[in-house]
Design brief:
This is TetR/AcrR family transcriptional regulator. This protein is mostly helical. The chain contains 10 helices and no strands. Helix 1 packs across helix 2, helix 5 runs antiparallel to helix 7 and helix 5 runs antiparallel to helix 10. The chain is elongated and about 60 Å long. The protein starts with 11 loop residues before the first helix and ends with a helix.
């Protein structure tokens, strides 16, 4: 039976994901071998296959874990008892902060998504679409109630914001002049200004 933790108590799946994320970020998905991942995680290939089944499963999980976190947080903002502009601003800022906090994961995914099988690619796209639809529903709620301008279609507003989010990994640097929260506040403010009636 595979051990579920190491001497430090870290669960083996977390160690595998951490090793894979670091190696995929440094070397690229296609240039990283399963052997390198298991050596970096300090486990056997059997342990990897016990938890993930394949290197491709690791790639999918690198992004899926961030998306699950973001979906959970978006749901909390969307369901909150607050004015729609506050809920949308909170959600818009949160996706920026959580993306920056997981920048390697996001960069790996956008660089390597084409390595996923059509089935896994479809699954990830479906999960991402669900997130975008929930975000769009906040915009539509505000447009229908007159709080936001309906001049721009909600789909285009979503693409506008997430275009910025998806490009964070190409320019954001932790040692740069802006903190993650400052970037998030600026992008959320831009979004709300674009929706002003």
């Amino acid at each position: 039976m595979a051990r579920t933790t190491d001497e430090s108590g870290a669960p083996v799946p977390q160690r595998l994901l951490a090793a894979a994320t670091r190696l995929f970020a440094e070397q690229g998905y296609d240039r990283t071998s399963v052997q390198e991942i298991v050596e970096a995680a300090g486990v056997t290939k059997g342990a990897l296959y016990h938890y993930f089944g394949s290197k491709e499963d690791l790639l999918q999980e690198v992004y899926a874990r961030v998306l699950r976190l973001q979906q959970e947080r978006l749901d909390a903002y969307a369901d909150a008892d607050a004015p729609v502009e506050d809920r949308l601003r909170g959600a818009a800022a949160d996706v920026v902060v959580t993306t920056i906090e997981n920048l390697d994961d996001a960069a790996i995914f956008f660089r390597s998504m084409h390595h996923l099988s059509p089935e896994k690619n479809k699954q990830v796209r479906g999960e991402r679409r669900r997130y975008h639809e929930r975000f769009r529903a906040l915009i539509e709620e505000g447009q229908q109630s007159g709080v936001f301008s309906a001049a721009t279609p909600s789909d285009l507003v979503v693409d506008y914001h997430f275009g910025s989010v998806h490009h964070l990994s190409t320019w954001y640097r932790p040692d740069g002049p802006l903190t993650p929260q400052q970037v998030a506040d600026h992008l959320a403010d831009l979004l709300l200004r674009a929706l002003r009636p």
